[in-house]
Amino acid sequence: MSSLAQPLVDREDLREQVDTRLRAVLAEQRTVLAGISGDADPLADAWSQMLRGGKRLRAAFAYWSWRAHGGAPGGAEAASIVGVGAALELFQAAALFHDDVMDRSDTRRGVPTAHRTFAARHRDAGWSGDADQFGLSAAILLGDLSLVASEDEFLRAVRDVPAAAVAPARSLFTQMRTEVTVGQYLDMHAQMLPWTDDFDADERRAREVVRSKSARYSVESPIAIGAALAGADAEQLATCSAFGLPLGEAFQLRDDLLGAFGDPEATGKPAGDDLREGKRTLLVVRAMRALGPVERAELASRLGAPDLTASDVEKMQRTIRETGAVDEVEQLIETLSGSALATLESSGLSGPAVETLGDLARAAVQRAA
């Protein structure tokens, strides 16, 4: 995240409050796992590693939307929204465990992914069986544990919130998790399809993945959940979506640019990671549309190839830049984020909390990691 966003997430001690709640959840889970078997300790260690990083952006969007819609800092209601923020972070951890398995990623935030860590543990110990399969299975189970914990934490957080506010928030939380799961499938499905000259269909699929896999759960849903818990009405929740969805799309499109061109020191992933994984992002679709048949076939043959060298990645990056696709995506980010901010400005909301929400929106699309 950009340097601008870090102090924004720290305002009203939000990051520390969310982190404190996450540490409490992990301590509880360590006790539960230890009570089942001492052999489960590595699961708690890997879970802690995943939760240790992260921007806390989802928690921040939920909290500052809650504040913008009338929530007051301090007290039991504020503790509830902090708990919901922790639930959102637990859900993100679950999604990342599973995403790393499906993408066969080697690193996450600069350290080995969970499935690679458990595969290495298997090899180092000289255990029988397939080390890689053991690692994949352990990571899937870690994702399941974090998914269950996200539900438990959400229910704990809202137990004293009026039922009229909990009902829409719970519905949004449930829908968000379904959308991400389907979005993961759509992402995987798109990568399996052969390239054709139907770029309109490719672009439609890429935008569907952006919205369902990331835009809604990263931005739109946290904003709407926070507003719902503050007692927002149907019209206000519709405004939250009109603000949050285009902002979430812009957020993910920035992520796509970083996945192709980001600095590994900042992103914690190899250079051109999305190109190595063969992601069918809007960036790649726009590049393929602009290329001639020969260049298109060459780029398609390299996307996701298991033996890509650093030189291959650099050539792909250069090809994509030369098509103008990067500039097109940057322009779309500007258009989407501009639309989102215009909606916020015309929402009728005002005050310092709304200003912080707007600042978070800008930081989300101006980040370098």
UniProtKB/TrEMBL annotation:
<dbReference type="InterPro" id="IPR008949">
    <property type="entry name" value="Isoprenoid_synthase_dom_sf"/>
</dbReference>
<keyword id="KW-0808">Transferase</keyword>
<dbReference type="Pfam" id="PF00348">
    <property type="entry name" value="polyprenyl_synt"/>
</dbReference>
<comment type="similarity">
    <text>Belongs to the FPP/GGPP synthase family.</text>
</comment>
<keyword id="KW-0479">Metal-binding</keyword>
<dbReference type="InterPro" id="IPR000092">
    <property type="entry name" value="Polyprenyl_synt"/>
</dbReference>
<dbReference type="GO" id="GO:0004659">
    <property type="term" value="F:prenyltransferase activity"/>
</dbReference>
<dbReference type="GO" id="GO:0008299">
    <property type="term" value="P:isoprenoid biosynthetic process"/>
</dbReference>
<keyword id="KW-0460">Magnesium</keyword>
<dbReference type="GO" id="GO:0046872">
    <property type="term" value="F:metal ion binding"/>
</dbReference>
<protein>
    <submittedName>
        <fullName>Geranylgeranyl pyrophosphate synthase</fullName>
    </submittedName>
</protein>
<dbReference type="InterPro" id="IPR033749">
    <property type="entry name" value="Polyprenyl_synt_CS"/>
</dbReference>
